[in-house]
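Second attempt. The first submission of DUF5808 domain-containing protein had a stray character pasted in from the spreadsheet, which I only caught after the job came back as garbage. Lesson logged: always re-copy from the clean sequence file. Corrected sequence (71 aa) follows.
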Amino acid sequence: MKKKFDQQLLDTMSRDLGNWHGPFYSNRKDPRLIVPKYNPMMGWTFNFASPYTYVMVIAIVLIIVCYQLFL
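This time the job returned cleanly.
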C-alpha cells in the first residue's frame, strides 16, 4: 500500500532550500510531478527528480515542434 503524504509534509518539502538547485526543484521523496515554487506567488515548476518529468517535458517540446511544422 502506498503511503499517503499529508499536505503539511509536502509543503515542508517544497519549502526546504536543500531541494532547490537554482530555479530547479529536485526531491526523490516528493511524489508530486508539479510543485509550487519556493515563493508560491511565482507559480509552479516540475520536480526534476521524477522520471515522469522528463517524459512530460519531451512531450511538450514535441507538441510545440509538431505544431510549428504542420501548421
